[in-house]
Every structure is written in C-alpha cells, then in structure tokens.
Amino acid sequence: MKKKTTLPIIIGNWKLNGTKNKLNSFFKFIKDKSLKIKKNLTILALPNIYLNYAQELVSKLNINCKISAQNIDIHKQGPYTGETSVNMLSDINIKYTIIGHAERRYYHSENNDIIAKKFILSKQKGIIPILCLGENQLEKDCGKTEEIILSQLNAIASIDKQNKTIFNNSIIAYEPIWSIGSKKSADPDLIQQLHTFIKNYVIKFQNFNIDNFYIIYGGSVNEENVNEFLNKKNVDGCLIGNASLNKKIFNNILVKSNKIDK
Ligand SMILES: O=C[C@H](O)COP(=O)(O)O
C-alpha cells in the first residue's frame, strides 16, 4: 500500500474452496459485468496452489482485484514439508496475506506468539498482513471481548517494543469467532465500538503516528448486511467467507460497497 488505499476494502476469503474452472468463471463474470470495483480495494484470498494462476488471470483480464494468501509459514525456508514461505509469496509477487485467521488458531493451534512472528515476517518482506483477531462465544458471554482483543494486539505490539509504527501498512480484521460461518453477524453498532477500541489502541501505542492502517469486519457478511457495516465509522471494509464463493453475490457486494463514501 504505497499510496493511500481507496475504501472500502472488500476481501473475499475462499478458504479451502475453489478450482481453476471456478476461478475462470468467477473472474469472467466480474469482467463481463464490467464490475465497478475501481473504487474499492478488492482482494481475493486463495489456497496457495491457485495464487499464481489467479494472479495471471486478473492481469490478463485487467481486473482490479488483488490476490492474497491465507497463511504463511513461520520460517522463510528449510525442512518444513508442506509449508509456504513469505519469500515464496514475494517471488510470485503476492502483496497480501491473511495472518492468524480463527481457523488457523483453532485447527492448527496457532497462538498469539506464532501469529505475531508471522505478522513481522510478512511486514519485513513488504507483504501486507491481514491480521485476524476476535473472541469466541464463551469469551463473549463472560464479557471478555476487549480483554481478548487486547491480548491479541499486545502480542503484536510487544514483539518489537521499539517499533512504534508496527501496525502501519497492515489491515486488522476483527472477526468474532461466534459469527464466522454462523449466519449470526454482529451488531454493527457494537462493531463500530470495537473497531474504535482497536483504533484507539493503535493510535496510543504509535503516538498518533498511524499510516495505511485499516480495520475491517468479518463474520457472516452478505449482500444484505454489508453496507450496515460499511456505513459505520472506523469500519474500513469487510472480510467475507461464504458469500465470496458465489460470483453473483460477491459481485452484488462489490457493487453495493462501491456506493459507500468512506
Ligand atoms: O474469512 C472470512 C471469515 O472467516 C468470515 O467467514 P463467513 O463470511 O463465512 O462468516
């Protein structure tokens, strides 16, 4: 993000889904609809095996959509079978990666320390981290939402205490775990409040020196509710799972979000 990003940021996360055929049909649809995504920063996060293919496809079709990875390994190279490094992403010109998605935290036991290391690694390589954080249902029920967010932010801030610009050139995706894939999106007013909480943390930590730092919401976002979130202050965009898998729905989300002035 060398120059200021144009908001809103709409990120589709295909998770463990997709084929070459699906990608062809998805981007062809977008192209045919002459989608007005010029205004948005639109990103599609794909399984590693499709990154290069998708990158070439959007370039060939001249579509204004960036391609992101969904994860990186904690190492840059070496005997780590099955992993993909930040160096490899950079080698194929990928500029974004999701870090610390709730599904990585849960299914792959990634803790705050691992995620903080990945965050730093991607920043060192000039790859924009899309850092996911958020509380689970139990933590929410116990009133621990802010405490959890704080511990996740502190893990990043404390990995290099001298670096008071660590959150610059990054995207934070606040995703309450209970809302992911549940069709139970969060209350947009609450999201505004929590995004403001996150932003204030970063402003204070960096002593107002914030630049190219964005906070987006994820969790059961669809074409009906997307603008309820985007209309809120300090909501710079959305991270969308299920609804990004359907080209027509994702297209509608992009068209709708383009009408928002941020
Ligand atoms: O990465 C996307 C989020 O996990 C949200 O997924 P969802 O839109 O299917 O709830």
UniProtKB/TrEMBL annotation:
PROSITE patterns: TIM_1, TIM_2. This is Triosephosphate isomerase. It is an enzyme of class 5 (isomerase). It holds the Pfam family TIM. Keywords: Cytoplasm, Gluconeogenesis, Glycolysis, Isomerase. Its EC number is 5.3.1.1. HAMAP family: TIM_B (MF_00147_B). Belongs to the triosephosphate isomerase family. One of its GO terms (biological process) is glycolytic process. It catalyses: D-glyceraldehyde 3-phosphate = dihydroxyacetone phosphate. The keyword Protein transport does not apply.
